[in-house]
Amino acid sequence: MSAFVTLSTGQKMPVVGLGTWKSAPGQVKQAVLAALDCGYRHIDCAAAYSNEQEVGEALAIRVGPGKALRREEMFITSKLWNTKHDPQDVEEACRTSVAHLGLSYLDLYLMHWPMAFQRGKELMPRREDGSICYSDTHYRDTWAAMESLVDKGLVKAIGLSNFNARQTDDIIAMARHKPVVNQVECHPYLSQADLVSHCRSVAVCVTAYSPLGSGDRPWASPDEQSVLQDPGLAAMAKRHHRTPAQLILRWNVQRGVVCIPKSVTPSRIQENLQVFDFSLTEDDMKLIQTLNRNERFIIPTVEKNGKRVWRDAEHPHFPFNDPY
Predict the structure, then answer these.
(1) Out of 47-56, 129-138, 294-303, which region has the weakest mean confidence (pLDDT)?
(2) Helices (H), strands (E): how many in the chain?
């Protein structure tokens, strides 16, 4: 089992990377250092996580001339936020991430969501009533602007995040530089089998964010079952003498899905990388697939008339109204 997938550009992308969403300032630098020191070469970042400068401080300590690692050994991803979809804003947004990370280029730059928000400095531009101000910039126009980042050498490749199959095809149909990745929420309760199979058929690699179910998501309710505590997975993990986390990561890796588990705990960071010295049987793989309940954890909800509803479901480019 290779520790890399080869993207359509020929780039090799490590199948396990460190996620940095929700890693608090003051923690993320140490997390990145711990990850680099135990063998991670893939770090997943985003402007919207508001911690890229700190990730950059860690990279500066370990990567570059005279340091432990060469830049070419690393695979660094960042993402364009929703407020920067206007084609005029794309290059500056990318350059800001590159500068915060202390790099001269990114290996991969993703469009974080297909939905554009109102331009400006606010990450979440809101009206008086708390609703988000949207923009009607189409993701195809944003993509065309991202393609020029490849032409200029600012990024080696570009890709998507949170796009459904239809939107992915929409981009492929007009793209000069094809998307190499679609990064989506993916874990045993949301196995994304249809989307993974669709992306594979059009040479787009799927990366799983929140591959362990993101138990620390800010809006988790106490009564929601955690993927990591699933009794079926716990029993299978015990049989393999592994942790449930290692089992889940192995399941995704074994079906060709890249994983970017987030942790700031050095022992867990190391454990999450130890998934290459065992494999799951076909029956194990099938059993995990039966746990799917198409349950999304990572989607902002708001209270409307006493009910929890998806916050952005009214956006014309909201991706999750389609079956996949």
Answers:
(1) 294-303
(2) 10, 12
- Residue 109 annotated to the active site: no
Residue 52: phi and psi, rounded to 5, are -65, -30
Instruction: Say which of 40, 49, 189, 209 is annotated catalytic.
Output: 49
Q: List helix spans (H) across 8-47.
A: 28-37
Residue 288: exposed, middle, or buried by beta-carbon count in 10 A (0-12, 13-18, 19+)? buried
Query: Helices 244-254 and 231-239: crossing angle, nearest 10°?
Result: 90
| Total residue length of the chain | 324
- List, for residues 269-301, the tens digit of each pLDDT value: 999 999 999 999 999 999 999 999 999 998 888
pLDDT at residue 1 is higher than 60: no
Please check the confidence at residue 219 and state whether its pLDDT lies above 70: no
What the block records as the tokens of 263 is: 């942790």
Residue 2 has pLDDT above 80, yes or no: no
AA letter at 139: Y
Cα–Cα distance, 319 to 313 (Å, whole number): 8
**With contact defined as beta carbons under 8 Å apart, do 215 and 273 qualify?**
no
User: One-letter amino acid identity for 268?
Assistant: R
| 51: exposed, middle or buried (Cβ count in 10 Å: 0-12, 13-18, 19+) | buried
